[in-house]
Amino acid sequence: MPKYYCEYCDTYLANDSPTVTDTHRQGRKHKDNVTNYYQKWLEEKTQKMIDEATAAFKAGKIVSDKNTTSSPLPSLNDERRNHKRRRRGRRGKGRCSNMGPDIACKASLGGKCLNMH
């Protein structure tokens, strides 16, 4: 019977029967080796992307504007709050009257307004 080679553990198993390979794959040592393998792969991939971005920045392909500040993205709760202010006192069919008849409310999901107004 042919031997089974596990590339994560760098070892040969006695044979390639399903019970032997399944038992091996369920083991703690194998799972740790798989986790370490993909963690290392991810770190290498991330470092490669960082190196490429750094090289592009140094080559002048990426321009940095030091005068701009980044602001956090608005949350869904902020969108709901702003939507309620725009819509206060008016009832509709799941659409904002101030957004136009053909445009659904930005705070809607599947045509139903999430603000319940």
Automatic annotation (TrEMBL):
SUPFAM superfamilies: beta-beta-alpha zinc fingers. Residues 65-74 have a biased composition (Polar residues). It is found in: Nucleus. The keyword Zinc-finger applies. GO terms for cellular component: U1 snRNP. One of its GO terms (biological process) is mRNA 5'-splice site recognition. It holds the Pfam family zf-U1. Transmembrane segments: none annotated. Residues 62-101 are annotated as: Disordered. PROSITE patterns: ZF_MATRIN (PS50171). Residues 82-94 have a biased composition (Basic residues). InterPro entries: Matrin/U1-C_Znf_C2H2, Matrin/U1-like-C_Znf_C2H2, U1-CZ_Znf_C2H2, U1_snRNP-C, Znf_C2H2_sf. GO terms for molecular function: pre-mRNA 5'-splice site binding; zinc ion binding. Component of the U1 snRNP. The U1 snRNP is composed of the U1 snRNA and the 7 core Sm proteins SNRPB, SNRPD1, SNRPD2, SNRPD3, SNRPE, SNRPF and SNRPG that assemble in a heptameric protein ring on the Sm site of the small nuclear RNA to form the core snRNP, and at least 3 U1 snRNP-specific proteins SNRNP70/U1-70K, SNRPA/U1-A and SNRPC/U1-C. SNRPC/U1-C interacts with U1 snRNA and the 5' splice-site region of the pre-mRNA. Interacts (via N-terminus) with TIA1 (via C-terminus); thereby promoting spliceosomal U1 snRNP recruitment to 5' splice sites. This is Matrin-type domain-containing protein.
